[in-house]
Each structure stands twice: as structure tokens, then as C-alpha cells.
Design brief:
Length: 277
């Protein structure tokens, strides 16, 4: 990545993206960050050597890509400030804001090419996945610029804007859901007498190794299950218990709840004071 990138909002997801970019070889002096209080930007400056700007204007000056990474309820404010400094076009605007359509961002920033991106936090380890959707009147070059930004951090896919709330629930939240399962698995191991360290390491390696198997060309979850579970064996006993307790239905309900919340925020609009990521 040789282009200059400015991050407006320097919280958890920006830290993950910047961490992945810098560990992948991006020059820290091509990255600037700005945040509301300055605390987030200064923390990233100290951790990764990026430039902590003291104003949005300073951060975006000369940037090729501006990444907006604030919460939905903080977005109207941030967009008003950006509208003042990006008047008439300039850099590509990549919005990571949940529950915020590209149409809304593009309407606030006339003449600016807008791409929406949903990275997951695994971009920090450069094993992430980022899903992109294109805003109205967004030229293909803008999508290419967004793709090039996230490509060093893992897979980059595209989706229709209408599906981005579902993408956020499955993919953005995905690492938390998988970590939640890993925690439950480790606690179950502790319940059977393993030390917390050993059980935690075994669960973590199960997740890591399964990820490698599942992302191999042609792999499917069914095939991975088949490689482990022999008829009448202990894995089958464990899987049957999960299915008897309706794990697939519970996972469906969990995803439905996340999507419903995100769609509800869309309908409420970003000005709603109750909107939170
Ligand atoms: N976390 C994830 O895995 C993930 C994944 C995909 C998308 N997202 C989305 O990314 C967005 C940010 O999430 P997060 O988890 O990174 O939030 P976070 O950790 O709470 O960080 C929010 C950041 O926004 C800054 N900020 C607030 N208002 C601002 C303004 N007007 N101008 C400039 N900076 C402002 C804050 O500044 P201070 O540091 O000064 O307080 C803080 O640095 C959300 O919309 C979220 O849904 C998150």
C-alpha cells in the first residue's frame, strides 16, 4: 500500500486495520488518524507510529482514501465535518459505519465516491475478510482503491448493499461469535478437569486449525465434520447433543437478532440517540 490513508475514528476496528497494514509492510507515515477527543489517534500513533492528526482537515489533506470508522450515532457529526473539507470530491470515502447505507453517506458528501466496507477484526492478523459494496455513482476505480486497501489484510469480497446488514451480523460479528463458542468449549474442558491454560490453548488451536481446513480450496463444513466424526464415536455423541439442543436453530436466531437490530437502526436513522454499535 503506497497511497495515503486517513482514518476518521480510531477505535477498535481502526486499530485492527492499521495493525494489519503496518505488520504487512505499509509505511506508518502514509497513515494518519484523527478521533473526537484525540485519545484514539494518539494511542495508534504511539502503538504503530502513524501520524495522529489534530483535525479532520489535517488528517484528510492529501489522502487518497479516507476511512470513516465511527459509530452510527456519531456519523452525522463526522459527515458534517467531512463535507466541509471534502467539498467537490477528492479522496475515496470508505465507510465502515454499521447500519448506515452508502446512499446516506453519499447524500451527505456530494461528488465524493463512497464505498461501504465490512472488515472483521481478524484483519489485525491479516487473516480477515472484508466485504465491499459500492455507493451510488461510485466509479469502478473507487472500488478498486478500497479493494487494494484491504487486500493485504485477507480476503476481499463484494456484496449487494441490501445484504450488508446480514454481512455485518455474520462476518463483522463472526470472530466474537466463534470466540464465544471457543470460550464455552474451553470452560467445558475445565469442567472435565483440564487447566484453564490447557483448555484455552486446545480450543484456540481447534479454531485456528479448523479455519485452515475450511478455507482450503473445495472444503466444506460437512467434509470437515466427516473427517473427524466416525459412526458411533465420541465426536458424533458430542454433535448429536448439540443438535438435540437445537444449536443450528439457536445460531439462526442469534443471526436474526443481530440483523433485526441493524435494520431497526437503519429505519430509526443515524440521528437516533439510542443508536449504538
Ligand atoms: N469492531 C469491529 O469489529 C467492527 C467491524 C466492522 C465495522 N465496525 C464499525 O466501525 C465503527 C467503529 O467501531 P469501533 O468498534 O472501532 O468503535 P470504537 O472502538 O468505539 O471507536 C470509535 C472511534 O470513533 C471516534 N469518534 C467518534 N466521533 C467522532 C468524530 N465526530 N470524528 C472523529 N472521530 C470520532 C472515537 O474517538 P475517541 O478515540 O477520541 O473517543 C473513537 O476513536 C462502528 O460503526 C462499527 O459498527 C466495527
Amino acid at each position: 500500500m503506497s497511497e495515503a490513508v486517513a482514518f476518521v475514528g480510531c477505535g477498535r476496528i481502526t486499530r485492527a486495520v492499521v495493525g494489519g497494514l503496518v505488520s504487512g509492510g505499509a509505511a506508518p507515515d502514509t497513515i494518519r488518524g484523527v478521533s473526537r477527543t484525540g485519545a484514539g489517534a494518539r494511542a495508534l500513533g504511539a502503538e504503530f507510529g502513524i501520524r495522529a492528526a489534530t483535525s479532520v482537515r489535517e488528517a484528510v489533506d492529501g489522502a487518497d482514501v479516507v476511512v470513516l470508522a465511527v459509530h452510527p450515532h456519531e456519523t452525522p457529526d463526522a459527515l458534517r465535518t467531512l463535507a466541509g473539507v471534502l467539498a467537490g470530491g477528492g479522496p475515496v470515502l470508505v465507510s465502515l459505519v454499521a447500519s448506515c447505507r452508502t446512499e446516506a453517506v453519499a447524500a451527505a458528501l456530494p461528488g465524493v465516491a463512497v464505498v461501504r466496507a465490512v472488515p472483521n477484526v481478524a484483519v489485525a492478523a491479516r487473516h480477515g475478510v472484508t466485504v465491499l459494496s459500492r455507493g451510488p455513482h461510485c466509479p469502478p476505480e473507487a472500488l478498486t482503491a478500497a479493494r487494494e486497501l484491504f487486500a493485504p489484510l485477507g480476503e476481499v469480497l463484494t456484496a449487494e448493499e441490501d445484504l450488508m446488514e446480514t454481512v455485518s451480523a455474520l462476518s463483522g460479528a463472526g470472530p466474537a461469535l466463534i470466540a464465544h463458542f471457543a470460550r464455552a468449549l474451553a470452560r467445558a474442558g475445565v469442567g472435565q478437569g483440564l487447566s484453564a491454560d490447557t483448555a484455552g490453548a486446545l480450543a484456540a488451536h481447534a479454531v485456528r486449525g479448523t479455519g485452515a481446513l475450511l478455507t482450503a480450496p473445495g472444503a466444506t463444513p460437512d467434509a470437515v465434520v466427516d473427517r473427524v466424526a466416525s459412526p458411533g464415536g465420541m465426536t458424533e455423541a458430542a454433535l448429536r447433543t448439540l443438535d438435540d439442543r437445537a444449536l443450528p436453530r439457536t445460531v439462526q436466531q442469534a443471526l436474526d437478532a443481530a440483523v433485526r437490530l441493524s435494520l431497526g437502526r437503519l429505519l430509526a436513522g443515524p440521528e437516533s440517540p439510542s443508536v449504538r454499535s
